[in-house]
Input
Amino acid sequence: MALMILVAAAAKSAQLPFSSWLPRAMEGPTPSSAIFYGSLSVHMGVFLLLRTAPLWRDQPSVCLVVGLLGASTSIVATVIARSQSAIKSQIAYASIAQIGLIFIEIALGFDALALLHFAGNAFLRTYQLLVSPSVAAYLIREQFYNFVPRQHHARWVLPKKFMYSLYMLSVREFDLDAFMYRKLWNPMKNLGRRLDFLTFWRVVGIFVPVYLLGLFLVYNREALPGAVTEILPVIFAAMAAVLVLKSFTERRRARMAWLLAILTHFWIALATSFNADFGFGESYLYLSGVALAGVVGLLCLRRLKHLEGDIDLDRFHGHCRQHPKIAFVFLLSCLCATGFPISPTFIGEDLMFAHIEEGQIGLAFLTSFSFVLVGLSIIRIYARVFLGPHAKSVYEVAYKSS
Output
């Protein structure tokens, strides 16, 4: 459990090997980058480790892993920051390096120092990001009007070939993006592509009868043997994972991907309902937000199909330009379906986790995996349908230029 907490903290605070997302996130507007990625979002991993320290502080092996992760991230991020040409990338990797030092302080038990370092780094990076456009403009002006070449007298401490290799690795950010694609995203996409045989009617023919059978069993679970009650939640959670994998890799039909993502929530609720002392009112609360978001989102996609024709997920369509109202309503549906705190889904997801028992490792893993992938799948649908250059505008420009 301590290592899983560390993985969550490392991903949220952009520690190795998850460091490459922070500079990409900072490519957005400067004020939002400063608030969310300079001060709030990127430090939540530190906050998580501080709050959960009583759970793992007495395990020297976990403390050692936390310290080693922080030290390796600090070294790598410092080297990368010194070779980046973009000012926001420099700030991002400098912040990552400081957070690595905070991880070391937490591992050594210096909680007060870590909290002070946490606040100081957050304020400093927020200020640096807010003034970064002005600093960049000032430096460009100074270089244009008062450029004086600097005289570098390099003293090589390490072999030149090693220094050159390290510089090239730093410029390429140690290929962290390629590593994540190769080790995480591509295996999941390959696994999802093996589910291409699941057409809409096969999903209806296979999953709907099994779901109805599961509903019958959950309302009559007292008659089931104990061994069956223990294995059924894992089976139903595995079927939820299959549906969300298919949704995540669906490239042809947007409505199909949307329905599979919504149905995943229903399967998770069914899997958790087999646990003892689980009130069905909690499932109804959870699924009320999901069902409403699912229906509204489906109506938006249906209306868009009527206006624009079939929508595939192979490319970005940019329909928010022509249909901003549909894009806004569909965005609200996406936020509700992914557990954003504007719907009962936000509370319902916590209720699902609260009823997963201590020994149900498979159910906990499959539920967490499904929730993460549902969010990615739904945001992917929104991005492919509504973001990017508008398809008709691209064709019109190409036609006029020819």
